[in-house]
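Response to reviewer comment R2.3. The reviewers asked that we include at least one raw input/output pair. We reproduce the pair for ATP synthase subunit b here without editing.
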Amino acid sequence: MVLTIIISFVGDTLKSILNNRKQTILLNIQEAQNREKEAQQNLKRAKEAFQKAQQKVFNIQQNSIDTIQQDEYKLTQKTQEEIERLYTVKQEIILFQKQKLVKEILKHIIDAAFEKVYQKLEQNATLQFKKEVMDAYILLFCDYQN
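Raw output as returned:
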């Protein structure tokens, strides 16, 4: 009977210790599962943030490429426009210089012609003839100036 009481007392105590240990283990398992869920959620959020960051990097790279291409196109256009403008200015300068040269040549020709006319008139022309020739040359000269 003492043995039965001892076994019963030790058995109850052992059961109680085992139940406490079981409860502690179950609580530890529950906490571990909760930490695992929390870690998985944190991992999921981190993966999502990483994917968003990757997308932002891709967008920034794409925008940079687009901006570079647009700037290159604008620069090419401005350079082409500047080349065309300089070509036009060059053509205008050449035309102006040609016109200036033609005027100078014509002036020398007219001066030479007047000189010859004066010489001929001095040599053998009457006053009336001299007047008519001079009027004709003056008329030609005035027409040229206009």
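The helical segments are 2-124, 127-145. The two ends are 152 Å apart (CA to CA). Further pairs are available on request from the corresponding author.
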